[in-house]
Structure formats: structure tokens, C-alpha cells
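Exercise 7.
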Amino acid sequence: MFTLRSIRRKSGQGMTEYIVIVALVAVGAILIVTLFGTQIKETFHRITGTVGGQDTTDKTSSKNTKDSDKEATTKRQMDTFDDKQNSGK
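Solution. The predicted structure, written as C-alpha cells, is:
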């Protein structure tokens, strides 16, 4: 016959199994990102470059990444310069 104690035990066992599965998935995800992190990063940069209208057909995605980072930094600096100039008038 089922008792309250046996129901609690089964519920606790199920919870433990879910925790173990979640831990294994987390360890697997960390391992995959560690092994393929650079390739994943370059793929995302190519995708975002294509969406942004850049030509990303060449294999030098890291060069494209550096160029886009440099362009963003220059734009940010120019925006700050404009703000400083307008506040002085």
C-alpha cells in the first residue's frame, strides 16, 4: 500500500534525477563553449555583419570583427566629441 512516506521518497528521487540531468546539460554546454567558443564567436560576427550589410564572403571574419569594432569605437568617440562641442556653446 502507498503511504505518505513512499510518495515523498519518490518525489525526492524525481527531483534528484532532474537536478542531475540539469547539471550534466550545464557541464556539456560549458565544454562545448570552451572547445568551440572562437568558432561560435566568428560565426555570430559573420551573421551580424551580413545582417548589418557588410560583405562577409571572405574567410577573414576576425579582420571584419576588428574593423567593425574600430568603426564603432570611432563613432562613439565622435558622438562624445559632438556632445562636448554643443555643450560649450
